[in-house]
Design goal:
Elements (H helix, E strand, L loop, with lengths): L2 H9 L3 H16 L4 H4 L9 H8 L14 H22 L4 H21 L15 H15 L4 H21 L15 H10 L16 H15 L4 H22 L12 H24 L6 H8 L2 H20 L3 H5 L3 H26 L7
Helix pairs in contact: 1-5, 2-5, 2-12, 2-13, 2-14, 5-7, 5-10, 5-12, 6-7, 7-10, 8-10, 10-12, 11-12, 14-16
Length: about 375
Amino acid sequence: MTNAAQLATENERILSIDFFRGITMFLLIGEFSELFGNLTDPYFDGTIISFIGTQLQHHPWNGLRFWDLIQPFFMFIVGVSMPFSFTKRWNRGDSWGLTFRHTLTRSFWLLFLGWALYCIGPGKIGFRLTNVLAQLSVTYLIAFLMMRKDIKWQLLVSFAMILLSYLLYQFWSVEGYNQPFEPDHNFGTWFDVSLLGQMNGGHWVAINAIPTTAHTMWGVLAGMILMSGRAPMRKVKILLVAGIIGVVIGFAMDPWIPIIKRICTASFVIASGGWALIALSISYWMIDVVKFRKGTLFFAIVGMNPLFIYLFAHIGGNELISKIFKPFVPLFFSWGGTLTIEIVTSLLVWLSLWYICYFLYKRKIFIRV
């Protein structure tokens, strides 16, 4: 076995990657349980529960909440995994052309599935490409095309994508769509209306895939750092310092370029990318350096079938599970009123989604594209 192949094999056991992916997916499917919405019920106003519930909702426009980081985390951790999976394939003799064709196929299916999620039910067929899977189909392909380039070129391209997006928003001159940081009056909305035929709800825009390519590309670079022969604490410091710099720069830009997740402004991409690096550095330090691994498998199980459980929950699997529990929960929790019943039902739905992942894990069933 060559040194490169041996290094890749050893690094496949970096459990923090599985943990990071798993906890991100666990939170992502938690949204489908409807628990987070219940936490913002007026009953909890002024309490820590209300604060947590608010942080588990997207910011309406200019600002940053915890939930705004989940999609960047997901796209980032996909990038982190790429050097490991592709190095393994190249070391066993797969050509670049073969892996490129695999990447194209995977990107196609991600795009198709992301688009198809909006084609379920009457009157929903369209070309809304704001779903995380559709966005990832673009960022994944570009990150692959750049991952064998020198680090400086990867960084240059990632920031060029952010700059391109900023320039389009800032200098687009079409009347009605020339207000870069106003909802539904910016370049992103023009792009969706003019080329995709409709405006997306919630002020989301498809062109977000361009600046957020940086998240996946920075994930690739982070993965390369974890694969390197550097001392573990050196890796932690590099990731942590880079993350802190990103957060500081992103928030420092906010007075001039508002932090807006819904149109992925430059300040948002840089700040959220910084938080992703910080989260990875802490995960790696805690799990692979300090070796504190209690509960790691609980989350990692979800990360082993991320596409399946996301699609299952998205197309109504959560509603089916909810219908199973709804007749029984009131029998035991009617004493707490409607809100208690809803919260308990949501928790049971969330845990059931986890159990489906556990069921697949125990039978070594891993569904991928």
